[in-house]
Prior knowledge:
The complex is a heterodimer. By secondary structure, chain A is of the alpha+beta class. Chain A folds into two domains: 10-336 and 407-468, no CATH class; 342-404, Dna Ligase, domain 1 (2-Layer Sandwich). Chain A is built from 14 helices and 23 strands. In chain A, strands 3-23-22-19-18 form a five-stranded mixed beta sheet, with helices on both faces. Chain A is globular, with a radius of gyration of 22 Å. By secondary structure, chain B is an all-alpha fold. The longest helix of chain B has 30 residues, at 3-32. Chain B has two domains: 1-152, no CATH class; 155-317, no CATH class. The relative contact order of chain B is 0.12. The chains are: A alpha+beta, B mainly alpha. At the A-B interface, α9, β7 and β9 of A face α1, α5 and α6 of B.
Amino acid sequence: MTINYFNEMFDGETVRDPYHGLDAWSRNMPEELRTLKQSEAEALFRRIGITFAVYGEGGSPDRLIPFDMFPRVFSAEEWRKLDRGIKQRARALNAFLVDVYGRGEIVKAGRVPARLVYGNDAFETAVCGIVPPMGVYSHIVGIDLVRTGPEEFFVLEDNCRTPSGVSYMLENREIMMRMFPGLFQEKRIAPVEAYPAILKRTLASVAPRKCEGDPRVVILTPGHFNSAYYEHSFLADQMGVELVEGQDLFVEGDFCWMRTTEGPKRVDVIYRRIDDHFLDPLCFRPDSMLGVPGLMNVYRSGGVNICSAPGAGVADDKAIYTFVPDMVRFYLGEEPILQNVPTWQCAKPDECKYVLENLSELVVKEVHGSGGYGMLVGPRATREQISAFAAKIEEDPDNYIAQPTLALSTCPTFVENGVAPRHVDLRPYCLVGERVELVPGGLTRVALKEGSLVVNSSQGGGVKDTWVLAE
Amino acid sequence: MLSRTAENLFWMARYIERAETNARLLEVGARNALIPNTSGGFRTEWDSVLQASGSAEGFYEKYGDVVERNVETWMFFDHDNPSSVASCISQARENGRIVRTALTSQVWDALNNAFSEIRAFGRTERSKISLSDLSEWTLRTTALVRGSALATQLRNDGYDFTNIGHHLERADSTARLLDVKYYVLLPQASFVGSGLDNYQWRTLLRAMSAHRAFSWAYGGEITPPKIVDFLVLNRASPRSLLTALEGASEHLDRLARGYGRSTEAQSQVRTLVGELAEMTVDDIFEEGLHEFLTRFIGDTAGLAATVHATYLNGDVR
């Protein structure tokens, strides 16, 4: 089966507009220079100590992710549509969260089955009835997108908890600007460097009810052993806020405090990079050493805000994903600008039947899986793998969803002997507070293995700088 | 600043200083091993080095035999020894990594490179590395970390905590080096003043990179009173106990000014400095050098504990 993949640089023989000049740039680069630049980039990454793993992927903490120097480019017009679509989706997801932890209108209206919401593992009864400041549960929404044609963008998944990778978006750009300043003079590339400032403004805008004066924002990290620790400290540094661990915070009276060399200081907004379950041992996992005992009480009474809010995970579950376009219609009264990938839910008997009959053409995923593990890529699987997977689905159909194998677009990428197309995806980071904002760019992940469609860093994926051309 | 940040800076500095002390101890051992053994002291000169480093027990458990190669491994490479140079460097780098944003890139680079280099040492064939390579590398590396901090760090409270760590560790290490020389190496009073004694004192000065400075400062014979004066009371000596304590005192005072309040830590350090500054060499010998040093080590540890309780554990109100 030959699939015709959309090539983001070439339309037949001609170079598409956004990539104008890059084809010649890459072809004219002598091999020695390319090798030199590549090792320079690696040295820079190693020197600044940037290491990273996408949420839930794990991996050893001191690992570098391969960086590909060929940028991925969007025209201003392409980005305009993405920008509108992403913001729309981020608004709808937040409206959904406020709704399901409140009156549950969308469930009452029969648009989303109650079982999938209230029976969901990610549904957090501890936050029922809470309306966080500005009505925002998910302040940083990472929306994973794939492209299959000039106009065809699909949302692969939403990340409403604590999407990681944004430090790569910023550092990739820094390194490209340092290595190829000429390119930035030739092409007008919209800057992304305002992200930390906008993030800080966003977090400050959702200060809790009882906050007086300038809100004190902190980032809560599980600690330096965490694979995304570099990102936590990078963001703290860029925003000029303290990077705290659970042991640095304590609850007293109606507030949350941090321990400093000058005595306790009140904390207003916590951008947490630890999971819900670890936030407060009195409310969630009693064995958590990472959290702050009593934090949830302070949160409930408006003494502190937690970003993203506990419970936000129910909106980015793979079973809920199917309903996001309906949320856009239901809450915003708009038609969704970004489409979902058609999804079959094995939980429904007739859809499960279809999935089992067409396994060789579908991608099957676990509902709670991530990082490209526990999935079946039908067209690339052997007969034995398929029948083994079919048995797993039949055993626990609720745990699986299936999607067609997408013809992921390709972007030119430096490979051993020159430049070749490799498949890419995109994760932009939408910020939701008093306003909904999106910096023009995101993290492009690239499957470096020839023919591979898996972009996860743990499975041979790399990253690229993502350019949005200025208007 | 976060108490945890201050604590990591404090310990980063202590570990760097400790790595240096270990390298200096190794050098003492190597030089002393070059002269004929005179029984009556410890079994070998290496033994005394282990005693001085405070890690002798762990060594005997793991290696048993006191031979140069084993001592070198234990004190330089062995991660089972919490105060080996390798352990200290990784600890310091870990402390630095936790507070990465409180360090300038020069300081971080120096720490990070030290860490990579020591790992590379670990992979090199041992016969290709001499002991003096190891100690020289350590002295150079620790000097680079300290120098980078001196040249580039912001003079804020973090800088003070770093320096308090350096000075307290240095006070402790000079006291220990002195103590082991006098008490452990030569338990028999009859050796004091003998030729061997002088040779070993000189080695001690050499290990502190101070033998020429000593000659400049005192000239003539090396006598115990001169040594004690140089390493305990002389303000011109960079490693003397008084210099180290006054350094700690200066940075504690800066903290008090910056924070607008004085604490128990300031009064404690002032008492210690005052007492030491009033002392004479005769007072020290009267008390007994070992007794004096033991008391001093205890007082310094007490001061470190107060700094901890006041600033580093975040319980202060």
